[in-house]
Amino acid sequence: MAGGDIERGVKSRTNDNYTSSSSYLIEDRETQWTSWLVPMFVVANVAVFIVVMFINNCPDHFHSRFEGNCVARFLGRFSFEPLRDNPLFGPSSATLEKLGALQWQKIVHEHQGWRLVTCAWLHAGVIHLLSNMLCLIFIGVRLEQQFGFVRICVIYLLSGFAGSVLSALFIRNSISVGASGALFGLLGAMLSELITNWTIYSNKAAALLTLLVIIAINLAIGILPHVDNYAHIGGFLAGFLLGFVLLPRPQYGWLEGQNLPTSVGVKSKYKAYQYLLWVVSLVLLIVGFTVALVMLFRGENGNDHCHWCHYLSCVPTSRWSCDENQT
Fold it and tell me: Which ranges does the record mark as transmembrane (predicted)?
């Protein structure tokens, strides 16, 4: 997108149903929750995009630095910016910046820390919105049915925040929007949930390999220009650790023991390695968030501490440049 916008893109994927997704090839003995939080998140993101387009009002507030007319002018004030300015069929950079896009200068020097949250509810265009919402439905609904809305809400929101923080540490000259930091958090939680509940899964290797391939493909997409892979990585790492903290399943022996007489010995609710992963992950989350936020609000540039990290978000080739202000 013109003006140095960076979209947090993520491709949707399909699920194979057993009693769960392809990563959950296990007989689920627990009652499934009714998914309402994820659909509500989808509605909220769509509603925000409609409001953004209403405020953008391309015909009356033409922000483009390129020549061209608004796209789909029959939509009136909901028409899109010219494709040369925004090929994703969406608002202008100026509108996104005004309404809460992630921008390092405003967060650090103008003390607008709220942008770390609001940017995750903005989208660069219809294409960006649809890809993220489809991914949220495919991943989020199944997780919410298995683990309930409270835990999935915590993972979604904290992962989105973590993605924003990492983006702000490494991206200085562009704005960034999108929910894919939160979506990658759900992918990370799926992976850690599979690991921490390893002993109660069937077809473990196939499920793990499938999930790792999906994650690798989505992260690889992030090395394209104008895609904020820092948000993907930050969200994924936070979700991965949160999965160990929030998504361990009790042993079957413990579940079955609840129906036995109290005189019968009952196994521990969780295995020792689950407790260990819980403690280590919680410590890493606290330390990671603390260090990242201190660095951010001190105005430090993450690239000064990691001279190769810029390749995580964009790899230059003969076909494109990684200039953050590239059109």
Answer: 36-55, 120-141, 148-171, 177-198, 205-224, 230-247, 275-297
- From the candidates 23, 92, 174, 180, give the one annotated as an active-site residue: 180
202: annotated active-site residue: no
Domains of the chain, residue spans: 36-255+267-311
pLDDT digits (tens, 9 = 90+) for 266-276: 567 788 889 99
Judged by DSSP in three states, 43 sits in helix
310 a catalytic residue: no
| pLDDT exceeds 90 at position 12 | no
Q: What pLDDT sits at residue 152?
A: 96
Alpha-carbon torsion angle 190, 191, 196, 202, nearest 10: 90
- Output b/e per residue, 278-312; b: 16+ Cβ within 10 A: beebeebbeebeeebbebbeeeeebeeeeeeebeb
In the beta sheet, which residues pair with residue 227?
Answer: 7
Contact of 187 with 18, CB cutoff 8 Å = no
CATH class for the region spanning 36-255+267-311: mainly alpha
* pLDDT band of 228, cuts 50, 70, 90: confident
Closest CA to 147 of 211, 212, 218, 239: 239
8 A C-beta contact, residue 155 and residue 189:
yes
pLDDT tens for residues 119-140? 999 999 999 999 999 999 999 9
Q: Report, as an integer, the average pLDDT of 214-220.
A: 84
